Amino acid sequence: MRPMGRGSEADARRCFCHLQGVRPWPQSIYGDTEKSNKDIGTYASLGSGPTSEMGGRQRACLIRSCLAAGLCILVRIWAEASYTASVASGLHSCQPLIRPTSGQISAFTSSLHMRRLVRRRKAREESFDMGDGFRMQVLSEDGKKLDLHSPQPPPLVFIHGSFHSAWCWAEKWMGYLAEKGYPSYAISLRGTAWSPDPLAKDVRAPSVEQHVVDLLRFLRLKNLTDPQRLPIIIAHSFGGIVAMKALEGSGREGASRRAQGVALLCSVPPYGNGPMTKRFMESRGWRTVWDITRGFVLKDGSKDAALCKKFFFSEEMSEDEVEKHRTRIQQDANPFFDLNSVSRRLPSLHSRESVVSDWVVGNPSLERLVVGASDDFLVDHKGIQDTAQFLGVPPLFVKGAHDVMLDVGWKENANVIADWLEGFLSTKSSNQTN
Fold first, then answer.
1. Which of 160, 234, 251, 339 could be 359's S-S partner, Cβ–Cβ 3.0 to 4.6 Å?
2. Residues forming a β-bridge with 127
3. Helix, coil or strand: residue 349
């Protein structure tokens, strides 16, 4: 075989070292090329020793590397084509790119998960036109048909909190409660990955009033404002603020009732996060406040698996399960609340009752449930107790962390909701019989 030139010799040395995962020896150690080649071995004779054991290893390594490179190219081409098809079908909101970035590939992976989630759970994915170019993602699932003599279960409308969207309900709870007969809808609020805000580049994050308008418009589109089909609203974390604001006009002001009941899970209190942050500073110190600040403001809670677990999940949850949820949480880490609008429109500021909200006083038949988690890092027990007082019911605490619908005890937590709903239906059935 023709000997290599000096330039190709150096290239071959670097190539072989790279393939073997070895750091190449610099020539300056010995001062001359021949001695370097002698001590390093046959780096310069890459693939040139037909009877040499080292040459055979080099050739095998080179062949494996070429095959791996070819496979990577094929996977890249497949990912680009599938990603473009995903966008064209309307399943993902981003514009197709010739060469997706790592973030877009992650979003594509998340869209594949959404497809599997919808297919596995028999859930439907719909997109509703809310006006101004905004389309809201809604995951829905029909309830299992029950005894004809049993009362028709009311539809459930799920509202998520920060760093989440409709997927967090479809993962566990929707299918489980559907087996008990409850039809359900989980919405992705404006500004999340699956319901991108078309005005996001021109204005700040959506206001809480805009979320309320979107929610009420969705209820009308699904004919859930009919007195016979009023839903049960189940809201988590910051979604509790949206639920409370949506129900404000259903009390003494004479507006039509908007729900048969409401369940707030680990909800932000009606007075917001301010007083709770002060309590954290006094009881836990500045470290907790800093963790929460960097977790949500700097979005570290969606990037750092350990911080994500501290925020949302119990210690018993496996690292693989945490990572699976974290990748979806990262997709929804964009702010979907204008915090200034929240502070100006807090439910406690717009209630005329000193303790219990006026819309509860005006709707005594409205079923209410307030649930907190024993190991919640983000919402303390005092916040849950104050929310329960605002709704005029005693609080109920379950074991686990903030994400009660995804945590290791999700089934026990879902049964708490199911028992509450069953009691509500029994009472309603008895009243209709009498």
1. 251
2. 137
3. helix
User: Which residues are CB-contacts of 135 (< 8 A; sequence separation ≥ 6)?
Assistant: 127, 128, 129, 195
> d(Cα 367, Cα 29) in Å, to the nearest integer?
81
Task: List the end-to-end C-alpha distance of the chain, in Å, as a whole number.
Answer: 101
Distance CA 352, CA 364 (A): 16
pLDDT at site 144: 85
Q: 210 vs 384, which has greater pLDDT? A: 384
As a whole number of angstroms, the distance between CA 43 and CA 306 comes to 44
DSSP 29-61: GTSSHHHHHHHH-SGGGTT--TT-HHHHHHHHH
CA–CA dist 57, 41 (Å, integer): 13
Of 396, 314, 298, 390, the closest CA to residue 353 belongs to: 390
Please provide the DSSP assignment of 83-128 as one string: HHHHHHTTSS-SPP-SS--HHHHHHHHHHHHHHHHHHHHT-EEEEE
Note every long-range contact of 151-154, with CB atoms under 8 Å and residues 24 or more positions apart, other chains counting: 151/425, 151/428, 151/429, 151/432, 153/180, 153/181, 153/182, 153/183, 153/421, 153/425, 154/182, 154/229, 154/230, 154/231, 154/232, 154/260, 154/261, 154/421, 154/425
Which residues, including other chains, have CB under 8 Å from residue 8's CB and lie 6 or more apart? none
What sections of 270-318 are H helices per DSSP? 274-283, 286-296, 300-303, 305-312
Three-class SS state of 28: helix
Q: Give the per-residue pLDDT at 197.
A: 85
* pTM: predicted TM-score of the whole model, two decimal places: 0.72
| 247 half-sphere exposure, CB direction, 13 A CA radius | 34
User: What is the Cα–Cα distance from 19 to 73, expressed in whole angstroms?
Assistant: 18
Distances from the Cα of 252 to the Cα of 134, 153, 363, 403, angstroms: 32, 27, 8, 33
Q: What is the pLDDT of residue 233?
A: 97
Q: What's the Cα-to-Cα distance from 49 to each of 9, 46, 59, rounded to whole Å? A: 15, 8, 9
Neighbours of 172 (CB within 10 A): 18
As a whole number of angstroms, the distance between CA 284 and CA 414 comes to 30
CA distances from 382 to 144, 315, 378 (A): 38, 23, 12
CB contact set of 50 (below 8 Å; sequence gap of 6+): none
Long-range CB pairs of 289-294 (<8 Å, 24+ gap) are 292/378
pLDDT band at 156 (very low <50, low <70, confident <90, very high): very high
Distance of alpha carbon 276 from alpha carbon 359, whole angstroms: 24
Residue 327 backbone dihedrals phi, psi, to 5 degrees: -65, -35
The tokens for 190 are 């404006």
For 303, residues 6+ apart whose C-beta sits below 8 A from its C-beta are 330
